[in-house]
Structures are given as C-alpha cells and as structure tokens.
Amino acid sequence: MCVEFFWLLRLVMAKTKTLVLPLCVLTILVTNIAKSQEFVFNGFGGASATNIALNGGAVIEHRGLLRLTNDTQRVIGHAFYPTPIQFKHNNKSSPTDAKLFSFSTAFAFAILPQHPKLGGHGFAFTISRSTSLADAYPSQYLGLLNPNDVGNFSNHLFAVEFDTVQDFEFEDINDNHVGVNLNNMVSNKSVEAAFFPEDSSNKQNLNLKSGKVTQAWVDYDSSKNQLEVRLSPTSSKPTYPILSYKVDLSPILQDSMYVGFSSSTGLLASTHYIFGWSFKINGEAETLSLHNLPSLSASNQTQKHLILGLSLSLILTLATVSLACYLFRRMKNTEVIEVWEMDVVGPHRFPYKELHKATKGFKDKNLLGFGGFGRVYKGVLPKSHIEIAVKRISPESKQGMQEFVSEVSTTGRLRHRNLVQLLGWCRKQNDLLLVYDFMRNGSLDKYLFDQPRKILTWEERFKIIKGVGSGLVYLHEEWEQTVIHRDVKAGNVLLDSDMNGRLGDFGLAKLYEHGANPRTTRVVGTLGYLAPELTRTGKPTTASDVYAFGALLLEVVCGRRPIEVKALPEELILVEWVWEQWRVGEPLAVVDPRLGGAFDDVEVLMVIKVGLLCSAEAPEERPSMRQVVRYLEREVAAPPVVYVKKEGGVGGGGCYGELHSYSTWSSVGDDVASSLSLSGGR
User: Fold this and answer.
1) Residue 360 annotated as binding?
2) Which of 235, 206, 193, 215 is nearest to 275 (CA)?
3) The pLDDT of residue 201
4) Comparing 644 with 579, which gets the higher pLDDT?
C-alpha cells in the first residue's frame, strides 16, 4: 500500500507541480490507516487465537467471559489483541519526529477476591512491545515487570493499574486505587477508585473488590498530551475523569505495540474478569452496554440455585444425622470426674481432646515405647507447640488405676532437675494419661547396649550417673515424704537435649511417711536390678533402690546389661563378673571397649567400687544414696570393698545364684532379659 501511495504521489507531483494535493492525499491516507485500527468485543464468546492472544492463567470461559486469573496463588494471566497497533505515523526522514496518535479504550471488568475484604492483587490495561511478558513476576508486579527491570526506560511499557493491595515497596496510596505506570511499578500518578455520576461533579466511592461489574475508560489526547481515566458502575461514560495526567507518551510508545491486559495474584488471590473491550486510534472507543455483555451474576445465581436445591433435599437427613453424631460424640468425650480426682493436688489436668489432638489420635507413628503398664506417645500441644510425652495406661491393667493415682499424687509435686517433670494428667473412662516433658535424646539404654546410635564418652556417662544419683537423693531424703522408685534402670533414665540424665517412669513409685515401714508385699521391679531381699520379703526400701543404682553404675562402666544371656557362662551375671575381675586385680578389664581407653582411670575405678558397694547382699551393708553421691563427687573416699564368697555364687551374688539352675534361661532373648519384671514388666 505504501509503495502504491508513493508512486501515486510522484505521479501527482509531476502533473501538478505542487504539494497541495499530495499533502491532502497523505492526510486522507494517514487518517484512513488510523481509523482502521479499532475493535470491539461485546463479550468473548466468539473469540479465538486469531483475535485474542492468551497466556498464563488467562482463559475464555464458555459463557463468554475473559478470565485473567482464578483463585490460585501467585498466578499470572495475560490477554492481548494479537495484531500490533500502530501508535505513530512513521516519518522515515525524521524518525524522532514521528507523530503519536491519540487512542481510547473502554472495558468492563469485575474483581472477585477469595476473601471479601482482602484483594489479591490486581490487573492493568497494558500497552507493551510484546504479547509475552515471560520474565514478569506475580503479586505486586501484576505480571508486568520483575525486580531487575523496574524503572528501565527500555521497557517501553504503559499501564493503567487497578490495584487491590497496598504495597509499600511501590508507594501505593491504599488497597483500592487506580494508577498510571510508565516503565515502572511505582505509579506516576494514582487516585483512590471512585466515579462521577453522569453530569455530576460529586465524586462517589467505588470498591474494586466488590465483585460488581465496573466500566473503565482510558483516553489519551496526543495533541494535548492529556491522559484521562474514568470509572462507572453503569454504561454511561462520566463527564469528569477521576484521574487526569498531563504526560507526553511519545518516548514510551513505539511505532507499533500491543494492547491488552495483565493480571496476577499473590499469597491471597482474586479472580479478575473482563466482560467486554473496545479500542480505537484517533477517536473515542465505543462505550459498552453492560446489559449486552455476558452476566457473571446470572451464571453464579444459577449455580447457587442448583447448589441450594441439592442442599435442601439433603438438609433434613443431614441435620438428623449430625445431631445424633453430635450427641454421641459429646457423651463419648465427656470426662467424668470422680471424688478421688478432686483431691489430686499439684499437676494440671489436661482436657482429653487436647491430648488426643496433640498425639494425632494416639497413632502408632507417634509411639515412643511401651511396657506392662502402658504406652508412651510423642505429642505437640496445639496452642503452645511444646513437645510432650504422653503415657497412656493400659486399660486392661488391673493395677492401672491404683498406679495412676500414685503417680499423679506423687510425681505431680516433685521438682528436681534430674527428674522427668510431670506436666499434667487426664482421665476419660478407662483412658489414664500422664503428660511429661519430652526428652529428645531418648533413654540411656539405647546408648549403652547392642549397636548404639552414638557412643557416649566417659565424661557424658559420669555426668549422667551423678545426675541420676542426685535425683534419687531428692526422692529418698529431700522431699517432704520418702519416695521409693522401685524400678531404677537404664531404660528409665532419659536424656534431655544437653545429655543430662533424668530419672523417669514413676509408675511403680510408692509414697511413705519418713520413718514408716512400707506395707506392700508385691515384688516389683526389673530382673537384674532386684535386690536379693526382695525375693524373700517383697518389701521395697531405699536400700533396694540403692542396689538397683549399683547395677546401673556397672552398666554404664561396662556397656553391658546386668544379665547378658549371650555372654560366656562366667560373664552371664554382670555383678559377679565385675566382682571376679576386682578380686583378681584387673578391674579395668570390665570397662566398655567402645571407649577406646579414653577415660579417667581414677574415676572409673571409683565408680566400679561404688557399684560393688551398692551391690552388697545385705541391705544394711549398702551405703545410702546421699553417701553414694558424696563418693561420686569425691567429697569423701569410698570404703574398701570386701570380697566375700557366698554359697551358690561369688561375691555379692545375691539372688543371681538361683539363675544357674534355670535350664531354659539361655534360650531367653536379649530383649526379654532386659525388660523382664517380676511384676509383669514395664
């Protein structure tokens, strides 16, 4: 067309010798080119890739709506007219003097936020060099730019944003504004969204997040360098603009560019719809009749009626079932508080629902361990996010309630840095629950036997046994009443995050007044830690706790269980083997070889010596726990160990001599040997 025009112009000039007619022809031609650059979409029902270019999250819905984004987080949507628009008359003789055309556009839109009062984020009418803004970011960048190209003159980007999120980085005035952006996300000028009713100068507020259809007009007069933006909830174009900005767009807009829309969502999302769109160069774009556009509300209303109809058909049944389930769950979850529970002093009573949620329904994946009196689960309190251990007493245990009451009334008031703290308790029907501090490093036995995940150094071992000893002194002598633990063993020594030893599991603890005689006759404890007199009298004392602590000392030094069923016959009983090595003058031969010789000889010999003193057969020959701690702290020297051979065994053999007559003992597995209890295990 241009070639024909210049041949025509040359012919006319040759005939007329004047420029008057060529100039008229040129004016007519340029005007015709400009007039040809206009389009109107009264809905997008018939739109296709030939007349609308989509990418990202933008789609055309079957009802004829252009949806730029949905309620997905951090999504971008672009929709452009696929043919570039010529914005300038191309003056080849002087490209810098190319005349910029005026332009006008009108479009109807609606923004439906995921949350009624929270936008996410917005959209913009855009004039761009390309239909693909591949490097653009979502959220506050509206799918237009990214952090690296914000403010670059080479962007050649013009946008009128309709923003529903106030972003302080880009100096947004509020979360409901219209702004003009030139190569930048910081608006050159912005105003709060509003409109002037027809032929009225009284501005009225307009909420972009209302979900209602709004029509926008963007007009640029290149002769006056005047940009104006208008909004209205009706089909009538207001007389007065809400935004008027004097700006020369010649440096921004190139000869030909693409027009369209860009939108994005952030952490919160909004669905951005375009209902219709018109555009024109050098003239006023056609105002859209909102009544002739696809209706979002009608479609939504139909869906709502359908959903309502289906819901009403089920509502009576659901109401009946829901009420029945509610009443059943309420009865099921009711916690009956008995008289004796009112007398429990000290620990906090947790709601059963809170512990059920903390342990995720007492699922096996949260199981830490179990024994004869119940299982222990890991949990996280919902509100404080504190990690806890919940001991759930087995309902089938005949002694469960009695032991539960003992534990609550006793340990709930005990406070010592080397005791596992009882945080609270709960009872619902047959579920008896105790809540403890969670010990992240587990129990001591897992670091001593078989193939431990970590080899404890001697310094760590020595600190642990001194801590446990201090805890036992508190139980025996320093609290208001004497507490006999009755199940001191490596499995009941728990390690906190700093590898401090804490004595736990007071399920077998019994409470006595100072100086009173224990009245129980039931033999409880774990084989290998039981004092000899318990098999005859069945009466636990502080001396029987001392005996068990002696076995623990030897375990820690040797890295072996009190009864090692896979060992050589002479090494089966740990205390007898240690006695024998002490007698022949080779006590260091019993030290755990995994230490690799890295230990203090004096400390190790002292611990072995104290362990043997605690293992004396006669309870009156054993030191008290206070004496034991003084030995370990080297406040006083431990007395000599006297080796005395007993009938049926060696050294302080005690009740172990009877084991040699058990013909089936060697077939018992390690796990059984380590956990077997005369009272049924733990």
Assistant:
1) no
2) 215
3) 84
4) 579
Which residues are identified as catalytic?
487
CB 185 within 8 Å of CB 150: yes
Residues 414 and 531 in one domain: no
pLDDT tens string 235-278: 999 999 999 999 999 999 999 999 999 999 988 899 999 999 99
pLDDT tens track for 454-468: 899 999 999 999 999
Residue 405's pLDDT band, with cuts at 50, 70 and 90, is low
Question: Could you tell me if residue 328 is inside a domain?
Answer: no
Q: Mapping DSSP to helix (H, G, I), strand (E, B) and coil, where does residue 674 land? A: helix
110: which strand partners?
A: 273
Q: Are 424 and 390 in contact (CB under 8 A)?
A: no
Q: Which domain holds residue 405?
A: 343-437
The enclosing domain of 490 has a CATH number of 1.10.510.10
In 3D space, the residue among 591, 588, 527, 525 whose CA is nearest the CA of residue 562 turns out to be 527
User: Is 332 inside any structural domain?
Assistant: no
Number of domains in the chain: 4
Q: Do 582 and 643 meet the contact criterion of CB atoms below 8 Å apart? A: yes
Residue 389 lies in a domain: yes
Q: Which of 292, 310, 334 is the last residue of a domain?
A: 292
pTM: predicted TM-score of the whole model, two decimal places: 0.48
Cβ contacts of 234-241, under 8 Å, gap ≥ 24: 234/198, 234/290, 235/287, 235/288, 235/289, 235/290, 235/291, 236/198, 236/287, 237/106, 237/287, 238/195, 238/196, 238/197, 238/198, 239/196, 239/198, 239/199, 239/200, 240/196, 240/201
Same-domain pairing of 286 and 139: yes
Residues 109 and 55 in one domain: yes
Give the dihedral of Cα atoms 599, 605, 610, 612; nearest 10 deg.
Answer: 120
Q: Are strands 422-428 and 348-349 parallel, antiparallel or unpaired?
A: parallel
Q: What whole-number distance in Å separates Cα of residue 182 and Cα of residue 163?
A: 15
Confidence of residue 331 (pLDDT cuts 50, 70, 90): low
Beta bridge partners of 163: 122, 177
Same domain, 6 and 74: no
Q: Which two tokens stand for residue 65?
A: 């709506």
| Tens-place pLDDT, residues 301-313 | 445 555 556 666 6
Strands (E), 354-513: 367-371, 374-380, 387-393, 422-428, 431-437, 482-484, 493-495, 501-503, 510-512
